[in-house]
Hints:
This protein has 61 residues and is mainly alpha-helical. The chain has one domain (2-51). The chain has two helices and no strands. The chain has helices at residues 2-22, 26-54. The radius of gyration is 15 Å and the shape is elongated. The model has no long low-confidence stretch (mean pLDDT 93).
Amino acid sequence: MRIVGILVALAGWLVPLVALSMTQSTGARFGACVLGIIISLVGILGVLNGVHQADAIWKKG
């Protein structure tokens, strides 16, 4: 599941990167950046944080 979280975060980073070459419109680039931030946050705060919480050191005992 860690790999999925990392891949989702990287996909969020790649969305604006690809959009730079696809359009010259500032509004479209801004939209792609916002979408990329949302995707990255889902990967980091949703998936990776969930994996970390499941294996947290304070839950072992």
